[in-house]
Amino acid sequence: MKLDAHIPSGPLTQKWDQHRFDMKLVNPANKRKFDVIVVGAGLAGASAAASLAELGYNVKCFCFQDSPRRAHSIAAQGGINAAKNYKNDGDSVHRLFYDTVKGGDFRAREANVHRLAQVSVSIIDQCVAQGVPFAREYGGLLDNRSFGGAQVSRTFYARGQTGQQLLLGAYQALSRQIGLGRVEMYPRTEMLELVVVDGHAKGIVVRDLINGVVTSHAADAVVLATGGYGNVFFLSTNAKGCNVTATYRAHKMGATFANPCYTQIHPTCIPVSGDHQSKLTLMSESLRNDGRVWVPKRKEDCGKTPASIPDSDRDYYLERKYPSFGNLAPRDIASRAAKEVCDEGRGVGPGSLGVYLDFADAIARLTEPVVRERYGNLFDMYERITGENAYQQPMRIYPAVHYTMGGLWVDYNLMSNLPGLFVLGEANFSDHGANRLGASALMQGLADGYFILPYTIGHYFASQKQTRITTDHPEFKKAQETVSARTRRLLAVKGKRTATSIHRELGKLMWEHCGMARSKESLTAALQKIPALREEFWSNVRVTGENGSLNQDLEYAGRVADFLEFGELLCLDALTREESCGGHFRVEHQEAGECKRDDAHFSHVAAWEYQGEGKSPTRHIEPLTFDEVHLATRSYK
Amino acid sequence: MIGAHGMKLAAQLFGTTLGRKYLMALSGAGLFGFTVVHMLGNLQLFLGPESLNRYAQFLQSNKELLWPARLGLLSMVAIHLWSAIKLTAENKAARPVQYIGDPNPVAATFASRTMLMSGLIVAAFAIYHILHFTVQVPEINFVSVDFKTFHVAEGAQKGFHDVYRMMVTGFQNPFVSGFYILAVGLLCLHLSHGLSALFQTLGLRNHAWWPLIQRFGIVASLLLFLGYITVPVAVLSGLVTATTGCDCCK
Amino acid sequence: MNLTLKIWRQKDAKDIGGFETHEVREVNPDMSFLEMLDVVNEGLILRGIEPIAFDSDCREGICGACSLVINGTAHGGHKATTACQLHMRKFSDGETITVEPWRARAFPMVKDLVCDRSAFDRIIQAGGFVSVSTGGVPDANAIPVAKEDSDQAMDAAQCIGCGACVAACKNASAMLFVAAKVSHLALMPQGKVERERRALNMVAQMDTEGFGACSVTGSCEAVCPKEIRLDFIARLNREYGRALLHRGGG
Ligand SMILES: Cc1cc2nc3c(=O)[nH]c(=O)nc-3n(C[C@H](O)[C@H](O)[C@H](O)COP(=O)(O)OP(=O)(O)OC[C@H]3O[C@@H](n4cnc5c(N)ncnc54)[C@H](O)[C@@H]3O)c2cc1C
Ligand code: SF4
Ligand code: FES
Question: Same domain, yes or no, for C100 and C153?
Fold first, then answer.
């Protein structure tokens, strides 16, 4: 298979404009003849569904929560980037483009990233017009802050709830279209199969989570905006429901999965408190603006109260290792540094898996009221979860899985290798390379949904001879039967372990073998253990209840089953990528503890093609070329 | 034109919960105004028979004002009651199942939770009160006299209805006074919540003003309560008698 | 610590349902309430019993999915805390805890502790948006917004649509939720254009869904995990009154 990214020709800065002109249009009167299915109602899905409906397409939108407003995007805290240069501090489209390519450790497509930086400015305009209450200055204009190690202030934010406000903006736009009858919304409905007819995506099969009824939906194009797969690690900052099911099942129908090993670990999360832990909570990265990260210099001190450890016995390791970025070093770097000190036995708190984030200096410098004003809600959240008061003692933090850069492979038009299947948001692999910068996921999700897909989908419609497929087609019958059979199989095992316990075991295995540091040995071991665990699942899982009503146990077991297959793909990708880059750190490939890329052999996207049960997937390559930026070693020293 | 518009407005006011709340608040505001004026009228008792009877005569003789006022009041009562009963019925229907768990104390005050009860008791009292002092049905005054026969016997006001004597005699029965005090108490409990709720319902508040409005509600109800009960208390304690009037005020 | 749970179980919308008692041993005080339920559920699954159904997703107090009435109070009654952020250290050893679903006619039951809150979505669909389509909008800084207004709009916009306000209100009124959205948009210049239509349409939809009216008890404000204030309800009333004045209700 040849993966053609369909990158338009011409100079980088003009590619998107030229492409928009070159793309074919669908006549306004004809738009209502096209049906589009959008799976997912997060930032990417809701913005796409609303924008397509505004254009006149018939849209059906699906999500598994009880309301589109609850998609996981709601949890994003920090902010959204845009190259507005409102601060006059030297930002530009080019700089945002450059920072993103560099931040992604030179493993993203230049053309995509440049387009992202270009449309970033329109996103902010759009959101403001929707009434999103971004933070403002006294003059009434928008405020910005610097975020995640950027050297310009380009992040727009709405207190600590930027994702919430942006999602509500998109949700409201979507709601308007639902109210107008332009979008048919299916909440509490899970997509379980993609239907492909003659190589084109033509519909999906879904299960109504309330009554278990399985139905088919046909369309002229299918858009997946189903989010990331971080929960393959069981513990992550993702919402409980985040899953790989939609994208993985599309993968099994022929869509290639790109760079699954690119996963991002966020350095500032609240550490695990016990075996009962169901998810991890992120503490906004902004805390690192004023907090100082440290651990005791000596192992013996780790049990002591932090106050009793004098400054001279503390190791402010980020400031020591990265003097110019200090506590603001990028996520992957800060996370690995934390792991390193904990591996040396210098971690603090339960299980010695934690480092201190200390505000004592900030409080002394700024006074407690100022610190409270800046971070009060985060300190409150920390106290609710841990019962500790961070004004009096340092916070304990530890890295946790946070975001997944990998996803279904898409071309410049956000279309997968299956024509008619478009993939947006965190579900695709497109723009972040091997590491995502803070405040860029929201930007990408909205860019995809508001400003890219509405153009490119029209081009697909206008350049294909459309064949109308109905749900009577045998492929739909087959897919429905696959779904029902899987459900029956899950209910029939009647074993002795819960899906949670197996998921937890998978997560632990993934975290230990394929987490912050990966090696040939660990990955090979994982590749042996995962199939065994999958075997265990299918022979010993206990799924209670029946299909015919709300059955959360059944829903969950289905998702765990997919993680058990997908985890293997992730490890395989990690094993074959014999280099370190961004979030993918192979211990064999490092230089003084830092990532060592191998541009000669791995400057490419790896996209995996499913070959059937029990067969190894095929690895396809899309070479990456860099015309505008120089490949360089990412250094934050 | 006006017709269609008026219909729409009426449909909003009578047909939506918010509209009905507006009706309730506006009629409540009117009734509150009436209770204030009424109280001020009552307090003329302390100025002696002449003042009070003059005031009463003034009201009684202007039939063209009296009846519209009475009709206005009556319609306000009707609207207030209708919206209250309708809203309460809807509210009950909106929440058919109660919780078993023992709730943590939440903000709702006693007054706010008993508005319909206090309102209905006050309404019942008002009917009695009208029969008692306005229609003057002798059988229910429990002092075995007919108030209609009370007339000023001499002086400039000769022939005026002796409202002064009627009030004093009427309140001399401790049960009648007791019911009166109870009803006024409930009315003021009703107002202690109703007044601030009125501002809330009409949207006449914000964060800065709310504490003041709440205090106003409570202080105004308290003042009303005191203003109203001084009359029966003064009568029962013998401070005011049917013949002398109040010594201190003369 | 050890606890006794009295939990509402109901197979589906048609079932009448009832309480079930579970003894839970060795609860770690660092668990969240939902993690405690996870542990109970794992035990049930291993015994072949269907786990207790409850809604949750983000588990960090922002998605608004979790919806438990704990000991009679929506979200358990701790300041600005959703059920998923409530930790077991807030309970004492040996305590009996009742867990019930949201109760309101407009939130029909689905199963166990899960109810259907789609009424909220329909209220937003009726007008909780600014009617701009993608593209063709002015530069973000073209319209300055006073920081005070934008801050207040944000206070209101923080609503997570959990429905605790409805669950706690004796009238199952959705006013706090509706007020939060109407206020958010009315405070921003972008939202002012359609403010009247929005207020009328959202209120009409709220009524159609069968929510009760506000009687200003303040229970909603007390349980709201995002501390949405009652003065937003006053603002909604004001917006509604304004719409009646300007548009006569049509
Ligand atoms: C705690 C946290 C904080 C973050 N903070 C930031 C930040 O400050 N800035 C930033 O830029 N990014 C941030 N991110 C990342 C960012 O929030 C996400 O990457 C982004 O919101 C993903 O949006 P999405 O639309 O792709 O997917 P999601 O919002 O995850 O939406 C997925 C949708 O798909 C639906 N779905 C999934 N599977 C199925 C199925 N099988 N059937 C039907 N429907 C399905 C879901 O119901 C949902 O509607 C943060 C992430 C986390 C976890
Ligand atoms: S107003 Fe508060 S309680 Fe009501 S839905 Fe919004 S966040 Fe929940
Ligand atoms: S689970 Fe999201 S708010 Fe509680």
Answer: no
Chain C touched by A158 (CB under 8 Å): yes
State the pLDDT at residue B250.
Answer: 42
Is any ligand 1 atom within 6 A of the Cβ of residue A430? Answer: no
Residues whose beta carbon lies within 6 Å of some atom of ligand 3: C 56-59, 61-66, 82, 84
SS3 A254: coil
Same domain, C70 and C169: no
- A202-252: pLDDT as tens digits: 999 999 999 999 999 999 999 999 999 999 999 999 999 999 999 999 999
Q: Which atom of ligand 3 is nearest to the CA of C61?
A: 3
Q: Does B223 fall in a domain?
A: yes
Cβ of A341 below 6 Å from ligand 1: no
Condensed to tens digits (0 to 9), the pLDDT of residues C16-42 reads 999 999 999 999 999 999 999 999 999
Which CATH number does the domain housing residue A57 bear? 3.50.50.60
Q: What are phi and psi of A586, to 5 degrees?
A: -100, 120
Q: Across the interface, do B102 and C71 touch by the CB < 8 Å criterion?
A: yes
Assigned token pair, B104: 């943590």
Closest Cβ–Cβ partner in C58, C127, C131 for A75:
C58
**Which among C33, C35, C36, C62 is the best mutation to test ligand 3's pocket, defined by most ligand atoms within 8 Å of the CB?**
C62
Q: Which of A70, A95, A207, A331 is catalytic?
A: A331
Domain count across chain B: 1
Q: Which ligand is nearest to the CA of A384?
A: 3
Cα(A380)–Cα(A377) distance, rounded to whole angstroms?
A: 5
pLDDT in tens, A464-521: 887 889 999 999 999 999 999 999 999 999 999 999 999 999 999 999 999 999 999 9
Torsion of CA A382, A388, A389, A395, to 10 degrees: -60
A532 and A616 housed in the same domain: yes
- Within-domain flag for B11: no
Q: Do C210 and C106 share a domain, yes or no? A: no
Look at residues C124, C148, C130, C146 and name the one whose alpha carbon lies nearest to residue C201.
C124
Q: Is B1 a domain residue?
A: no
- Kindly compute the dihedral angle of the four CA atoms of residues B62, B65, B71, B72, in this order, to the nearest 10 degrees: -150
Within a domain: A353 = yes
Q: Which residues from chain A sit within 8 angstroms of residue C89, using beta carbons?
A: 387
Pick the residue whose CA is nearest to atom 44 on ligand 1: A63
Minimum-distance ligand to the CA of C84?
A: 3
Strand order in the sheet with C69-70: C18-24, C3-9, C96-100, C69-70, C73-74
pLDDT for A382 beyond 50: yes
Task: Give the number of other Cβ atoms within 10 Å of residue B60's Cβ.
Answer: 12
- Alpha carbons A434 and A407: distance in angstroms, whole number: 12
Could you tell me if residue B81 is inside a domain? Answer: yes
Asked whether C and A share 3 or more beta-carbon pairs under 8 angstroms, the answer is yes
- A200 in a domain, yes or no? no
Same domain, C77 and C188: no
Catalytic status, residue A154: no
pLDDT(B248) > 50: no
Kindly report, residue by residue over A30-73, the tens digit of the pLDDT: 999 999 999 999 999 999 999 999 999 999 999 999 999 999 99
Close Cβ partners of A91 (under 8 Å, ≥ 6 residues apart)? A83, A84, A85, A152, A153, A154
Closest to A49 in 3D by CA, of C138, C185, C134: C134
ipTM over 0.85: yes
What pLDDT band is residue C249 in, cutting at 50, 70 and 90?
A: low
Asked if residue C71 and residue C151 are part of one domain, the reply reads no
Q: Tell me, what CATH number does C47's domain have? A: 3.10.20.30
- State the residue range of the domain holding C144: 118-247
Does residue C146 sit in the same domain as residue C236? yes
pLDDT (0 to 100) of residue B207: 79
Tally of domains within chain A: 3
Looking at the CA of residue A162, tell me the nearest atom of ligand 1.
8
Least confident of A326-335, C55-64, C235-244: A326-335
Domain extent at residue B61: 17-92+111-245
Residues A458 and A579 in one domain: no
Q: Which domain does A285 fall in, by range? A: 267-400
Point out the residue among C62, C124, C141 whose CB comes nearest to the CB of A142. Answer: C141
Chains B and A touch, using 3 or more CB pairs below 8 Å: no
Q: Do C106 and C136 sit in the same domain of this protein?
A: no
| pLDDT for B249 beyond 60 | no
CA C81 / ligand 3 centre spacing (Å): 10
